[in-house]
Amino acid sequence: MPSKYQPPEGRVVQGFSFALDPTDEQMVLINRFFGARRFAFNWALSQIKDSIEHHRATCESTTAPSFYSLRKQWNTEKNTVCANDETGEVWWTDISKEVFADGVRGANDAYWRWQKSRKGMIAGQPVGFPRFKKRGRDRDRFSFTTGAMRLESDRRHLTLPVLGTIRTHENTRRLERLIVLDRAKVLGVTVSRHGDRIIAAVRVSIVRPQQAGVSQPDSVVGVDVGVRRLATVATVDTVIAELANPRALEGRLKELRLLQRQRSRRTRGSRQYLVATQKIARLYADAALIRQHTFHVFTTNLAKTHGVIVVEGLDASAMLKQKSLPGARSRRRGLSDAALGEIRRQLRYKCPWYGSTLIEADRFFPSSKTCHDCGHVQDIGWSEQWNCEECSSSHQRDDNAAINLARWASLGSVGAPVKRGAEHQTESHSAAGEDTRKGGLESFRPNNSVRRAT
Question: How many CA atoms lie within 13 A of 8 on its CB side?
């Protein structure tokens, strides 16, 4: 298997996302590309399954699947596989070869990820055997890695293979300027559907010099995440800021229930059914954008302000598997809406950008139920306020956890700072979603989401 791309010294891999405004003809072609990728993925997966079944039946040794072998086999059989059953006409010629290659690569990567999961070579939850893709059940997307991929000089158009020049909904000057100055090079473009929007994520190798430094290099803060408050920021002795949960999805549940009820009364596959489906997808996409914007503004200012940031190593995926507890369904929905692991993910690649250090506390560190006055640990359940059994001091759950996390960095506990190498700077972010305003946490208050504790 090919090794992961490593950018040259002094460069990082970064993503810039732009919404597209394709014409009707381009939209028809994009939908065909989505289907072609699923078709190639399913074909490659069927070849892998046939090889496994043949090995089990005959005990004969078979060659392990690889992207290059599967793609070579695809090129040999595509005239037969992609022929119309009635007319015999070949249809693959209207689709970019990169779309089929992306589908084959996706099936091969999914198979090897399953194999590594079986051997315990990857962290996280066990990965199941890949399943066939179905329209409506799989996220529509495809990627280009070769061919004509460029931002036009008018800063309002993006050129892609076969699709041609597509107008962008946003101005692309931020990235186009870097490309002209030879500070960025396009590596690939992924086109996907988000709600009723078509999004192009441009992956580039970019020169990103280390900034001068954070405004408070000696500041050590702990960040506790939760559902009531999205985040609580504290130093070793006091709380300095809070980020209120925007509850992007919870605030629109009534509208969501109405749309789902309307769709349930319509004939599946009809025009009105598709209209209702698009409205539901748009609602989910809007909620995701609100959530992402809140996170980006918060994490950017956090990384630019404080020298050391300590976050808790929550197992967010395990928290979503509560089934037997009373009210577990609504609790899982609230946890999903809060996206507890997103702040940590964004800080992992933003801290090296701005010169701050990220420390991830141990997953089993009892930050919430440890008294920060005397160090006593006790069971507090779901209590918002609790009193220490040893020193009788009163604590607010999130405030106490944030202070304990801030002290984690100075206690010599196990928790290594995130490295500042290029391998930790490959996460992508939206060019429109990140707020780069200067100042500390108190300098921005989107929708009153951040307030100083009294």
Answer: 8
